[in-house]
Amino acid sequence: MNGANALDRVRIVLSHTSHPGNIGAAARAMKTMGLARLYLVAPAAFPDPVADARASGADDVLAAAQVVGSLEEALAGTVLSGAVTARRRERSVPVRSAREAAAELTGFAAHGDVALVFGRETSGLTNEEVALCSMPVTIPANPEFSSLNLGAAVQLLCYEMRMAALSPGVPASPDGEPASFDEIEGFHHHLEAAMTASGFYDPANPKRLLQRVRRLFGRIRLEKEEVNILRGIIAALERKPD
Amino acid sequence: MNGANALDRVRIVLSHTSHPGNIGAAARAMKTMGLARLYLVAPAAFPDPVADARASGADDVLAAAQVVGSLEEALAGTVLSGAVTARRRERSVPVRSAREAAAELTGFAAHGDVALVFGRETSGLTNEEVALCSMPVTIPANPEFSSLNLGAAVQLLCYEMRMAALSPGVPASPDGEPASFDEIEGFHHHLEAAMTASGFYDPANPKRLLQRVRRLFGRIRLEKEEVNILRGIIAALERKPD
Fold first, then answer.
1. Could you say which of B57, B142, B166 has the minimum Cβ distance to residue A34?
2. Any CB–CB contact under 8 A between A156 and chain B?
3. E strand or H helix that includes residue A68
4. Which residue in B19, B22, B33 has the most chain A C-beta atoms within 10 A of its own C-beta, making it the best mutation to test that interface?
5. B20: preceding bond cis by omega (within 30 degrees)
6. Interhelix angle for B20-32 vs B150-166, to 10°?
7. How many CB pairs under 8 A join A and B?
8. Backbone angle region of A62, left / alpha / beta, with phi > 0 → left and psi within -120 to 50 → alpha
9. ipTM above 0.85, yes or no
């Protein structure tokens, strides 16, 4: 696939945006870099004339925007996703720089849709949202003043996506066919159910164990076949005679 | 010099900005990338509470901003400058991409101040302003929609400057000592005066010849000594017996 086609497979996901002006600015930033697929998770106000005004000509991006109720919906069908975050996380998944993430996402775009996810203006993404994505992505910024405006952050990442997609050296695409977001989530839900039924996991005392499991599998890029194998193992264990 | 010091030598010059909000957005964008030196050429409104509001914490950059009356003043003492422009120019000086320009500017910062110049929100830089700079710089954008917001353009260029300055491979600094903006302008004024006095150039039928001369010398990075040699030649020719 050529670079321009890779850009067609990039979803820009804005989660819980407060100010419609920032949605308009993001649409404009996307269009300047040749991206068109905007997903809005539970925006505070959309459509909105303020968004239209700030889009300044990127009305087509706004008109085609998908408004969804959850990040899971926005990521459905993707094969790789980056959570754009300024804060340092405790997760052991290595953080990618904007440039590194753009190269990796462009490579995976040969297999399907990829996504970049941006959080609330004030507080960014929640830990739960970051955990749903394949990798945290950070913009190398001044450590003493790293608060980029939402539109500016979208602009920078879209620029790096364009630079990666149109660079002469085509980014390497992964060897095996990557598992999709849905397949990986299906695996996690299956595993959680099995852990719960077995008594290993207690939903009344939750969260920490599931987070650690997600960290563990978040470090690898699961392929379709590997997810099938893992789920096969779980299913076999579930069937074991008691 | 290390990378952080190089960033201290970068002037961000905004020429004839109409909206103070964009000045604030530029200040914020600069500070997120560790840049601090803002020059404003004849801004429509500054200082202004709208600029303060959009700066969101980059008040120090605004407070230290230099307001000047002309681009010449903003470029005085610089050793290399880039004119950020979306339009294709007829000039034969090769256009640099944002990334290429950042590498070159970072290299020259070892010798003195460097500058990135941004034009009016609606019409960009004039041809005269571009001609005063060492090179045109363009952000690789969607050819069908290349109108970046001013703050977004400043954000991208400051990001590339930070990436270039802090990258492990230190950019090459030029061999000879580069001539400053003032020295090169002094040469052009000297040459123009000599051409006029000799009758070769007619100020009543102006512009085109001077532009071509600037194009010619704009393609090379004149060193201090080379400017001295050229001016010596002109002076010698001026003194020739008639």
1. B142
2. yes
3. strand A66-68
4. B33
5. no
6. 20
7. 86
8. alpha
9. no
Position B200 confidence tier, pLDDT thresholds 50, 70, 90: confident
- Kindly report the average pLDDT of chain B as a whole number: 89
- Alpha-carbon span A119 to A14, nearest angstrom: 6
Q: Does B58 touch chain A (CB under 8 A)?
A: yes
Q: Cβ distance A150 to A22 under 8 Å?
A: yes
Contact status of A9 with chain B (Cβ, < 8 Å)? no
What are the backbone dihedrals phi and psi of residue A69, each rounded to the nearest 5 degrees, phi first? Answer: -90, -20
Alpha helix segments (H runs only) across chain B? 3-8, 20-32, 49-55, 59-63, 71-75, 98-108, 127-132, 150-166, 181-198, 208-218, 224-238
User: DSSP assignment, residue A222?
Assistant: -
Instruction: DSSP letter for A172, please.
Output: P
Q: Which residues contact A124 (CB under 8 A, 6 or more apart)?
A: A85, A86, A87
Cis bond before residue B47 (omega within 30° of 0):
yes
Give how far the C-alpha of residue B103 lies from the chain's centroid of Cα atoms, to the nearest Å.
15
pTM exceeds 0.80 for this model: yes
Q: What local confidence, expressed as pLDDT, does residue A113 receive?
A: 96
Nearest CA in chain B to A155: B152
Residue B50 at interface with chain A, using a CB cutoff of 8 Å: no
Q: A13 by DSSP, 3-state: which?
A: strand
Q: Are strands A113-118 and A78-84 parallel, antiparallel or unpaired?
A: parallel
Report residue B98 CA to chain centroid gap: 13
Phi-psi region of B16 (alpha: psi -120 to 50; beta: other; left: phi over 0): left
- Do the Cβ atoms of B115 and B40 come closer than 8 Å? no
Question: Three-state SS string across B53-86, please?
Answer: HHHCCCHHHHHCCEEECCHHHHHCCEEEEEEECC
User: How does pLDDT run across A172-227, given as a tens digit for each residue?
Assistant: 667 778 999 999 999 999 988 888 888 888 888 776 778 778 877 777 788 888 88
CB B85 within 8 A of CB B124: yes
Residue contact B32–A147, C-beta within 8 A: yes
Backbone torsions φ then ψ of B121, nearest 5 degrees: -60, -40
Taking each helix axis as running N to C, give the angle between helix B98-108 and helix B150-166, from 0 to 180 degrees, rounded to the nearest 10. 50
pLDDT digits (tens, 9 = 90+) for A21-49: 999 999 999 999 999 999 999 999 999 99
Q: How far is A183 from chain B (nearest CA, A)?
A: 34
* Closest residue, chain A, to B160 (C-alpha): A156
Distance from CA of B65 to the nearest CA of A (A): 18
